[in-house]
Design goal:
The protein is an all-alpha fold and 204 residues long. The protein has seven helices and no strands. The chain has one domain. The radius of gyration is 24 Å and the shape is elongated. The termini are far apart.
């Protein structure tokens, strides 16, 4: 005579219901992160970057040689990078999200190539003596990177990137002495304006 087996499996081998629920919640959260927008773009951080860029422009305008001018603006780029990453990280933590979540990682990957190309072109233009081209190239490449990253962010970000591209294009075809003030208008003025808009609409 055959043995009788229970229809339901042994409770010891069954997966608890809460484990299924946690797996489902984790899947939903990761899906939303991949599909969502990068909202940790710092408004107040952008405004701070604008202030430091305005100071850099004022200091750079007083230099008598290009090397000193370039050193000031490269130092400003490093300072702005620290401000931007720190402010974005603080905003992400306040929203209980990770800075390099799905959209955040895509934003960084989209922005990084333009920044790296800008560094290479700066060195190449400096060696070639084409110093007047550097401000326009910086503005256009930064704008291109922000445009690319803005595809994964809030709507105002690609608008800011487009404004940088327009300003950089104007700088390329303008007299060399104007370059410093184009940088002031871009990294200073545009960061202040759009930083304020982002801070009001999407928080600090």
């Amino acid at each position: 005579m055959g043995s009788v087996r229970p229809i339901r499996p042994n409770s010891e081998s069954a997966v608890p219901l809460h484990a299924h629920a946690m797996d489902n919640l984790r899947f939903i959260r990761e899906t939303m992160e991949r599909a969502g927008s990068f909202t940790a773009v710092p408004g107040l951080g952008g405004m701070t970057m604008g202030v430091t860029a305005a100071v850099a422009a004022a200091l750079a305008a007083r230099q008598v040689n290009f090397e000193a001018w370039l050193a000031i603006w490269l130092s400003e780029a490093f300072i702005a990078l620290i401000i931007g990453v720190t402010a974005a990280g603080r905003k992400a933590r306040a929203a209980s999200t990770e800075l390099l979540s799905g959209p955040g990682r895509k934003f960084a990957v989209a922005l990084a190539p333009s920044i790296l190309v800008g560094g290479v072109l700066t060195f190449a233009l400096y060696r070639a003596g084409l110093h007047a081209m550097i401000p326009g190239v910086w503005l256009m490449l930064y704008g291109t990177g922000v445009l690319a990253g803005g595809a994964f962010s809030v709507r105002i970000v690609p608008v800011m990137g487009f404004c940088f591209v327009l300003l950089g294009t104007a700088a390329v075809f303008s007299p060399a002495p104007w370059g410093n003030w184009f940088l002031a208008g871009g990294f200073g003025g545009l960061h202040l304006i759009f930083g304020a808009i982002i801070a009001v609409r999407y928080g600090g």
